[in-house]
Amino acid sequence: MESEIQSQKEAHRSEEAMDSELSKLGSNLITKFHVLMRISQIYDSKNVALNQFIQESLLAINTFIQREGNLCLKIVGDDIFLNEQRLRYSVEGFNSFKYLVTQWKRRFIGGVLYKEILDEETMREFIYILMGLEEGREENAALFNEKLRERHISSIEVSPLEVSEKEEGAYTLGKEDSREVAKKVFFETIGTFKELITHIKGNQHADVRKLKRLVRKAVHLVMEDESILLGMTTIKNYDEYTFNHSVNVAIYSLAMGRRLGFSRSVLSELGITAMLHDIGKSKIPLEVLNKPSALSDEEWGQMKKHPLTGVEIVLNLKQLGEVNAKMVVGIFDHHLKNDLSGYPKLFRKKRVSLFGRVIQIADAYDAMTTPRIYKKVPFTPEQALAVMLKDRNVCFDSILLKMFIGLVGVYPIGSLVLLDTHEMGIVFKPNPDSQWIERPQVVLVERDKRGEGMKELADLTERNGGNGFKRSIVKALDPNKYHIDIAKYFL
Ligand SMILES: [Fe+2]
Ligand SMILES: [Fe+2]
To answer: What separation in Å is there between the alpha carbon of 336 and the centre of ligand 1?
Structure first.
């Protein structure tokens, strides 16, 4: 009996492990595909410049087929399935993911089955037939198969896109899992924000309307269940600090705004202000922004200008109607500090605006808990809150800070904790009942042979049969010491 359970466990574990290796292969495949699809729109199919990209895609695809016998790539909703397994996307891979889904959907192609190892010529034909399809034609899949037959390619079969009713109103909450929606909003916001910054840097026309639409979706999510979006802030992507940071600051600000009782429209304004709070940094050279050592006086001077530069940029946005005074002042204020000892220096005393005070707290917390080039090991959530409490009179509005601590909890979402059962857990969702503030829901950290995290949720209010609790938190731990990638548990 015991050995049966053991072998079941083993089977389960190897499934999980395979899952993760396949998902790595899958992500690589999507990235290579993305590049090839783009390149094919620049060069004609005979151009030698293509060869390298074809080879790379071939390698990715054939490795997969070799392992699995075949490869079935399918688009369902906004997800990609590879041999019936949903591909998890990452921050780095999201653009490729999105591109592939959009391009295939536009052409009404829903899936492809690769039945055997492909050769270079087949790959070339495949990509050019695909990208040559006219967008918006429902009969494209049939047409595609016909073209493959004409070229005597029998190793590939294409199927049409299945459009479900749900897709017509994308992001309809309730129908889809909110966590999935949150993920999409999160990654899409990062992508959109990135685009905006690129335009601003190049002094091109920058449109904030798309960003505003996404912020409205985020507001919707925060009103529903703030813990889901707060969980996304554990994705601390080191290389893309500015984008990640801006989105995280917006999430924390929205959650605070919600507790302050802001209306949806004010929340949207707060969200977009928070997202744009560091937009002035886009004019600071990267060498200064990412300098690993201390800044010179001159560089520090440049750095301190970013709130003002941010105001200028926002005022120069073409759609000025989208921006109001509250937003502009919020950006200007976000480093003033509570006692006005921050920057920019003021000629006349003023009170820091409410948006400014909210963003100041969200900004400090996210900056401290994220690894940076000059501080690779960040503070744990507890350490960051302790520092903020110490500085509360100088830097922050103490009432808002108290509220923020209540919001992120004694054990903020994403904290690594030690349980009295000797298990480790990651705080997943705070307990909504304030009397149980020390009993959140946690994901138990278990590791399979390959060191991959496995998800099992435990509610710390669960009783042990008697009067006690099944599990209780003993103390918070530092995830950096245990090499645990917290974000993994939220994706
Ligand atoms: Fe800033
Ligand atoms: Fe910031």
So the answer is: 10
